[in-house]
Amino acid sequence: MSGVLTERRAAILDAVRRNGAVSVSELAARFSVTQQTIRRDLHILDSNGLIQKGFGGAFAAPGRVLYGYQERQGEQADVKKKLVLALEEFFTDNATVFVGLGTTFASLHEIVIRHPGVLIATPNLDVAYSCAINTDATVYIYGGYVRNKDPAILTVSDESRTRFKFDLALIGANGVDEDGTVLEFDPMEVDLTKSILKQARKVVLVVHHEKFGRRAPHRVTHVRDLDVLVTNGNAAERLRSSGLLDGVRVIDVG
């Protein structure tokens, strides 16, 4: 990849991975170059699979995380713990539960251990390991590719996606748009989650308040299609209209 990552392109790549998305105009102003120059940089980075070039900007490339696992695991650890503890009431003995990707669910085994007969189906290797080691739950792992520097499986599409009827689906998100759209960076992750939502009796979105307003290219679902939203702030204030949450139970862990 010699010649691809010039100093400016390396800085652009770092900005995309850290912020999730950047605009052409922002980058042009930052580097004091024309927007045409930035578009050429983005085209080269996109051609080499390092980003996804979109209209007017760029997003993180599929299969690549914005931050390494160890870095993300330590972020907002206390808040993540509170978010997970709020899920206790939705667990029942012998439930079939889908758990999505993200470090937020790392401590979920502390709830699962109190509910015998639970089946956990997940692409999240961290959740699979902790539940298998620390609980008596049956753990099913979706097959596919392990994402770079992350304990996450980017699943391939096969019959396993329709194998279960879920009592509960726990999902995270990379962002929640002000219009209520739930967003992700990786299209492979989105594809699995969309399949699961069709088969779940109850859908719970678990997101830190900083995810509201964050941009990402791929649509997962909409807040109005959730049953429960668990967060740590006033979600209605971060959306274009508080009416978007009508019919959705919102749990604010503070």
Structure description:
With 254 residues, the chain is α/β, with parallel strands linked by helices. Helix content is 29%, strand content 22%. The chain has eight helices and 15 strands. The chain has helices at residues 7-19, 24-31, 35-47, 69-74, 77-85, 109-112, 125-134, 187-197, and strands spanning 21-23, 51-54, 57-60, 96-99, 119-122, 138-141, 144-146, 153-155, 168-171, 175-176, 181-184, 203-206, 218-222, 228-231, 249-252. The strands form four sheets. Strands 6-5-4-9-12-14-15 form a seven-stranded parallel β-sheet, with helices on both faces. Strands 1-3-2 form a three-stranded antiparallel β-sheet. A three-stranded antiparallel β-sheet has the order 10-11-13. The longest helix has 13 residues, at 7-19.
What labels would you give this structure?
29% helix, alpha/beta, three-stranded antiparallel beta sheet, 254 residues
Question: Which structural category do the helix and sheet elements fall into?
Answer: alpha/beta
Radius of gyration: 19 Å
**Ranges with pLDDT <50 over ≥5 residues?**
none
Q: Give the overall shape, derived from the CA principal axes.
A: globular
The overall average pLDDT, rounded, is 89
Strand content: 15-25%
* Element pattern in H and E: HEHHEEHHEHEHEEEEEEHEEEE
The number of E-state strands comes to 15
**Number of helices, where a helix is a run of at least 4 consecutive DSSP H or I residues:** 8
Query: What share of the residues lie within helices?
Result: 25-40%
Task: Note the main sheet.
Answer: 7 strands, parallel
Distance from first to last alpha carbon:
46 Å
Strand order of the largest sheet: 6-5-4-9-12-14-15
